[in-house]
Design goal:
Strand order of the largest sheet: 1-2-3
Shape: globular
Number of helices: 8
CATH architecture: Orthogonal Bundle
Largest sheet: 3 strands, antiparallel
CATH superfamily: Intergrase catalytic core
Distance between the termini: 47 Å
């Protein structure tokens, strides 16, 4: 779930609601259904090779009779993952990091790869560009490289 959020910018709740029928493996496309999206609008997210392989590998080990991609130990939809998330962060020695920060990382990575802000906005499902700007933080190294390109 963590990697999928990182590779797609999906919100935690969107990952919880994801069904196998929302994934088109042939077209490398994932659909976030409007009913499970914060905005209430359906959006389509292209899957990079890492996300596609992750989902194929996950599907190979899942119970195919369950429509949800990720389920709790009882085969039901997650309503939270607080204990697991805290455990992962502790083991990785990461502090002050929320699940939603994965979305910020996704947006920042796109911007640092010169993806235009409108495309980032659409991938995140934002209606306003102002919200996207709050997500697209640049790494200090990226800023230094940008300034280093100047030569007069």
């Amino acid at each position: 779930m963590v990697l999928l959020s990182l590779y797609t910018g999906m919100r935690r709740g969107e990952v919880f609601n994801l069904k196998w029928t929302d994934i088109n493996f042939e077209r490398h496309l994932l659909t976030v259904q409007g009913g499970g999206a914060k905005s209430g609008k359906t959006r389509h997210i292209p899957l990079n090779d890492n996300a596609l392989q992750l989902l194929k590998d996950w599907q190979a080990q899942c119970n195919r009779s369950i429509e949800l991609v990720f389920t709790n130990k009882d085969g039901q939809k997650f309503d939270h993952i607080k204990t697991s998330w805290k455990g992962v962060l502790k083991k990785a020695e990461i502090r002050d990091f929320r699940w939603h920060d994965l979305r910020h990382t996704f947006a920042s990575w796109l911007v640092m790869e010169s993806v235009d802000l409108n495309t980032v906005r659409e991938l995140l499902g934002h209606s306003e560009l102002q919200m996207t700007l709050r997500y697209a933080h640049l790494a200090p190294e990226h800023k230094a490289q940008a300034v280093g390109r100047l030569s007069f």
